[in-house]
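Weekly sync, protein design subgroup
Attendees: M.S., D.O., the rotation student, P.L. (late)

Item 1: inverse folding check
M.S. brought a backbone from last month's batch and wanted to see whether the design step gives back something sensible before we order anything. D.O. pointed out we never logged the input encoding, so this time it goes straight into the notes. Structure tokens as presented (250 positions):
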């Protein structure tokens, strides 16, 4: 039985005062549960505050990105070991906004995945197709190639300590959600790709859905056998909505 995971991706949103309020509200709504893990990924600068405020809460946290390098003259970068130092358990790698807006390619994503694991952070590897790729029938092959690009560098065993998030680009921040059937089809495909290389790893791999997950569509997504939780953007900034999504995953 895979334990569900719900991760809030705050993106580049928030302020000190706003984060203080949101964390208070989240702690009010959410208690640690045996059935689902819950984590938030704030902007880097809020990690000290998050790590203090959530220390006793049972909620976990991570980053939205990391450097592929360990240490050195890399202005503006943050390393995996720094994130670990602030208590991060997770880091998102290869989010489509990083890929499309900041030019991260498969090689960068794979290097970040490896860097995360070397500091014992669990990478949440994002994959997903554009609308054009979906319309031309290329979605499954595209997603497979994104996974294989990381397997080729990190090895299949590395997926025993990783999470995959399927995030169709056309559904991110658009209010358009993949139907449960569309999402389940791609999730089953991802699990199949991993299973063809290592069935045991595929069985335990958590595959999250991301793309306009809301309080009112979470349950029908989570009802599918290969959807093990969610990576939530916009709705993770509203404590009551995020809590409702987390409860749906329990
Ligand atoms: P969204 O974002 O829930 O706002 O669509 C999801 C994501 O980018 O992870």
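Designed sequence read out in the meeting:
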């Amino acid at each position: 039985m895979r334990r569900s995971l719900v991760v809030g991706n705050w993106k580049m949103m928030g302020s000190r005062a706003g984060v203080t309020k949101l964390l208070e509200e989240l702690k009010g709504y959410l208690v640690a549960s045996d059935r689902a893990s819950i984590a938030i990924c704030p902007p880097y600068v809020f990690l000290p505050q998050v790590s203090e405020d959530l220390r006793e809460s049972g909620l976990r946290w991570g980053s939205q990105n990391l450097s592929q390098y360990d240490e050195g003259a890399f202005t503006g970068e943050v390393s995996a070991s720094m994130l670990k130092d602030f208590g991060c358990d997770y880091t998102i790698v290869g989010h489509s906004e990083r890929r499309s807006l900041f030019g991260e390619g498969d090689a960068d994503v794979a290097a970040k995945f490896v860097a995360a694991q070397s500091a014992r952070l669990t990478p949440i590897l994002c994959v997903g197709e554009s609308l054009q790729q979906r319309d031309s029938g290329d979605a499954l092959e595209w997603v497979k190639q994104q996974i294989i690009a990381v397997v080729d560098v990190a090895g299949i065993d590395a997926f025993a300590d990783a999470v995959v998030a399927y995030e169709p680009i056309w559904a991110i921040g658009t209010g358009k959600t993949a139907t449960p059937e569309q999402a389940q089809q791609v999730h089953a495909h991802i699990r199949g790709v991993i299973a063809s290389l290592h069935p045991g790893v595929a069985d335990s791999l958590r595959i999250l859905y991301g793309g306009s997950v809301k309080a009112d569509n979470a349950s029908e997504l989570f009802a599918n056998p290969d959807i093990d939780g969610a990576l939530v953007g916009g709705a993770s900034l509203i404590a009551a909505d995020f809590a409702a999504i987390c409860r749906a995953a329990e």
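Discussion: Residues 139-154 form the longest helix (16 residues). The chain has a mean pLDDT of 96.
Action: P.L. to compare against the previous round before Friday.
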